[in-house]
Amino acid sequence: MNSSTAEPLESFAVIGAGPAGLMAAETLAASGARVTVYDRMPSVARKFLLAGRGGLNLTHSEGTARFVARYGPAADRLAPLIARFPPEALRQWAADLGEETVLGSSGRVFPKSWKTSPLLRAWLRRLEGQGVRFALRHRWTGIGPDGALAFATPDGEAAVPPAAATILALGGASWPRLGSDGSWTDIVAGLGALPSPLTPANSAVLVPWTPHFAERFAGEPLKRVTLTFEGQRSHGDAVVTRAGLEGGSVYALSGQVRDALGSGAAAILWIDLKPDRSEADLAAALRAPRAHQSTSTFLRKAGRLAPVAISLLREVAGPALPADADDLARLIKAVPIRPSGIAPLERAISTAGGIRFADLDSHLMLRARPGLFAAGEMLDWEAPTGGYLLQACFATGRAAAEGALAWSRTSAAPPSAEANVAG
Ligand SMILES: Cc1cc2nc3c(=O)[nH]c(=O)nc-3n(C[C@H](O)[C@H](O)[C@H](O)COP(=O)(O)OP(=O)(O)OC[C@H]3O[C@@H](n4cnc5c(N)ncnc54)[C@H](O)[C@@H]3O)c2cc1C
């Protein structure tokens, strides 16, 4: 990162070829810069491709205030960046790549193919047309004493002369086999920006089920339930797994469960199995004569409960369910589940923690390392599923690139790179 570089000043490095890095590369290349994108994997954007398997949720159509509030404590820092590349701009960007977007349930936005691959193919064609170069199988290991970027490649170590500016977009640490393994944290700490610990976000919740329940019901959805944890609610399907519960409604509360368990508090996740029926209505239905029906048959008919829901009641209340209709209705409206933890980072949808905003200027440049920028999930923010993750990755990728361009123009005599690192 100094002016005596072998490369021209307008040559930029982007490390990490996920959505954040590719958006940074596009923004840089669109201004005429020469860009090389490095990634440790043999192909780009593996997590982005995986995200398309369940229907790629690009962003959300809700109003701005509600949208940015999803980022919790990071909302203030992300709001101006998202304002410069808002959901409408993202939808237009996708449309320009041939993927019109459609609205799904509750205002979520998807590409019309519901997949990543057509969008990614068109995007890579555009990047190649812009002259963006890709250096794959390059694992970033640090910055050498002369400011050179250090990589491990299948052919050995490689040192790349300092670029005009470098953008790190190395992702979080979930699904590490797809490329982002969080190993950058030590390198970045060595550069003077100690990241906050990487922890799972949007994760399944672990519940110590009895072997019978786990074996019999793993894979069964509890349909249209409402979950409540410490006053926070989420609505949707929760799928029973051998280890606990998963699904969008569970992920939405997993951060709170993680934090409560981390602080040693007792955690109870309440499940309302019949959110569309009042307790009084349910109790009235459960007062009907049972005749010769078994409890399960009676609950299935009078309570309109699925077998998995009936077994869940037994799982928490024991085989003999309350005989009293009011007590039974109360239980159905608030089944107490005691999670023992949340699923580890390897299986989480996203990662909390990362480079702290206090260590970044408003253009996402590391204060301790002028000329080095960071974007995407490696920054210290978290958000629920619903398109908020990708929106923030795209917006911060773009913002970091704009910052890098501005910095390279104004830094006539950039500070020389100090000796440091290598992981
Ligand atoms: C199953 C699943 C489904 C998802 N669905 C959605 C969804 O529908 N909507 C949504 O908004 N979000 C979704 N997400 C989250 C979303 O995919 C991520 O938030 C997003 O991919 C993060 O983008 P990123 O560019 O910051 O990092 P990544 O996509 O993780 O990319 C980082 C890149 O950096 C590379 N890299 C890492 N370390 C190094 C190194 N040392 N040297 C060189 N390269 C390195 C990696 O190989 C990787 O290519 C989903 C995630 C998962 C796991």
Provide an overview of this structure.
By secondary structure, the protein is an alpha+beta fold. It has 2 domains: 11-201 and 348-410, FAD/NAD(P)-binding domain, CATH 3.50.50.60; 205-342, no CATH class. It has 14 helices and 20 strands. The strands form 5 sheets. A 7-stranded antiparallel β-sheet has the order 17-16-13-14-15-12-18. A 5-stranded parallel β-sheet has the order 6-2-1-10-20, with helices on one face. The longest helix has 23 residues, at 388-410. Mean pLDDT is 93; it is low at 1-9 and 412-423. Flavin-adenine dinucleotide (FAD) binds at residues 15-21, 38-41, 46-48, 50-51, 54, 56-57, 139-140, 169-171, 174-175, 179-180, 183-184, 349-350, 376-377, 387, 389-390, 393.
Keywords:
single chain; 423 residues; 2 domains; disordered N terminus; FAD/NAD(P)-binding domain; alpha+beta; five-stranded parallel β-sheet; 34% helix; seven-stranded antiparallel β-sheet; disordered C terminus; binds flavin-adenine dinucleotide; elongated
By DSSP (H or I, 4+ residues per run), the number of helices equals: 14
Please identify, by name, the CATH architecture of the largest domain: 3-Layer(bba) Sandwich
Named once each, the bound ligands are:
flavin-adenine dinucleotide
The helix content is 25-40%
Main sheet record: 7 strands, antiparallel
Looking at the chains present, what oligomeric state does this protein adopt?
single chain
Q: SS-based structural class?
A: alpha+beta
Radius of gyration: 25 Å
Strand content: 15-25%
Low-confidence stretches are 1-9, 412-423
What is the CATH C-level name of the largest domain?
Alpha Beta
How many domains comprise the coordinates? Answer: 2
- The fold-level CATH name of the largest domain is FAD/NAD(P)-binding domain
The count of DSSP E runs of length 2 or more, i.e. the number of strands, is 20
Mean pLDDT: 93
The shape is elongated
CATH superfamily of the largest domain: FAD/NAD(P)-binding domain
Q: Order of strands side by side in the largest beta sheet?
A: 17-16-13-14-15-12-18
Distance between the termini: 19 Å
